[in-house]
Design brief:
Strand content: 15-25%
Distance between the termini: 36 Å
Strand order of the largest sheet: 3-4-2-1-5-6-7-12
Oligomer: single chain
Radius of gyration: 20 Å
Number of helices: 11
Order of helices and strands: EHEHEEHEHHEHEEHEEEHEEHEHH
Number of strands: 14
Amino acid sequence: MKILVTGTAGFIGFHLALKLLGRGNEVVGLDVINDYYDTDLKYGRLAESGIARDRVSDGELVTSSIHPNYRFIRLDLQDKEGIDRLFRQEKFDAVCHLAAQAGVRYSLENPYAYLHSNITGFMNILEACRHFKVINLSYASSSSVYGLNESYPFSTSDNVDHPVSLYAASKKSNELMAHTYSHLFGIRTTGLRFFTVYGPWGRPDMALFLFTRAALEGKPIDVFNHGEMQRDFTYIDDIVDGVVRVIDHPATAVADWDAVSADPATSSAPYRVYNIGNSKPVRLMTFIEAIERATGRLIEKCLLPLQPGDVPSTYADVTALGQDLGYRPSTDIDHGIGEFVRWYRSFYSA
């Protein structure tokens, strides 16, 4: 397959592109490389993929010096003409759309960034799939869509109509938009609700990155909800394994789908939504203790209340993804954090 992966200067997209290339797929990577966080890290990921920073320019495909089957283009999702031109030229077999404006707290400060990237950008991807006959689309949703839900573990059969951040609302909107295009145009869409992904090359706005940096620099950290938060931390290799399975098995319609007692994760259209997580929530304080073990440093902790837009706990029910596609996450916290700390020390010492 020739696969478009959006967000390949980002954390998950970078790892996914390498996995697909390693098994022989042709990959086109796309990213706008905005300054939401350190662009040196984004260009570092690209360099690791064989895309040198000084060769990247807007709207031009660049071939990797390491992977002959990998090309990258810097392009804004809001550039409809540019997106259409890329789809017309490349004739993709599948699209995995991971590019988005991320971050719950940032959405309180910069709400329009989420409308532009996550709504308009996704619309342009859907329209390009429609007009250029790409019927295999997988895309990133988020565990944030569960919002005020307190029924654990979170199930894709749960109601998700009460988000608590604009980021979450934008991701729920993506799921609704995808269903519409599956129903009207037969595009086979699968949404993946990611649960707190971590690992090497991770995002610097995430807890693991912030806490590791603080530990190594001897600085205090802010611990929200007085450390009583729980998160379904999921290692990047487990996430990528699940995404690849979804790409290889595009959604199908459920022949006997009942609109009266409807399962919101399936449809009479070729539409599917899955949770993708570790299904083993960990207390934030336990997570911090694992970082202290991996770094060999104790961390000073400033205990603070729950922040607006945050939820106290996440816990993924991944039964459906396991039953349908054989997904089995297997990485424990100590191993995953150890791998991240080794990468962090190596990258930042270099």
